[in-house]
Amino acid sequence: xxxxxxxxxxxxxxxxxxxxxxxxxxxxxxxxxxxxxxxxxxxxxxxxxxxxxxxxxxxxxxxxxxxxxxxxxxxxxxxxxxxxxxxxxxxxxxxxxxxxxxxxxxxxxxxxxxxxxxxxxxxxxxxxxxxxxxxxxxxxxxxxxxxxxxxxxxxxxxxxxxxxxxxxxxxxxxxxxxxxxxxxxxxxxxxxxxxxxxxxxxxxxxxxxxxxxxxxxxxxxxxxxxxxxxxxxxxxxxxxxxxxxxxxxxxxxxxxxxxxxxxxxxxxxxxxxxxxxxxxxxxxxxxxxxxxxxxxxxxxxxxxxxxxxxxxxxxxxxxxxxxxxxxxxx
Length: 330
Prior knowledge:
Low-confidence stretches: 316-328
Oligomer: single chain
Mean pLDDT: 89
Number of domains: 2
């Protein structure tokens, strides 16, 4: 086994990948680290394969550059393929619009080695925007994989959230032991967003199995966000889809017999939140994109159990989980 695998998920990333690969082949403090770069082409129809071939022809140093093609689209599917193919004990996930700092690999390996109970840990993520961000954007930035907190901490409660998939590092063995082979939430499929929060579902399983989940700000990446992803229509669709995925994550906290009761509790709670939000913000919903996004997330949450049921995304049987290893962060 190698120490580390950098797994890059890409879809039609021929123009974006060179920036990521250039950052990776200039990583510092890696002379004593056995690592590799693995590009998972998630059914691209552009020149992605040719770009990787050209880099492989000139790739030098101790770090191999590998390429695999995954024809079934879906962020969770591509991540699962990366875990199957990876040779590293730790796997760091990057998208083709994530640019790691020059010591990202070294920082990830060092943290993983001194924290053996950490099943996953996330990076500090700075947003790089092509256009001006909306007013009050900080209220929703975390949902777009912007994690700017400079303090290291453990996600020891559900209320503190979980790391973003961009810049996430997982312990391969922990994932294989704890996360079901087929996740319900599959994430973005090409340019569409059928369900979101696929990495959060996986992290729920890791934490349920007793692994620690950390925010490690020494690992830093830049997340490049194009102008189209800040357009009103895109954001409203994104947050509505985010809401539609929420029921799945909520129910993971409960045993099967509790879920029908908690479904009703959450339906009532969501309806109350929608009513309250509308009373407070109805005059600005057409002009304030952040307020509109928050409303769309609430509406999506309300309809989430019905949407997932219609899509047959509420399976009865799940892969059993191992006995918890630890319940606290030291």
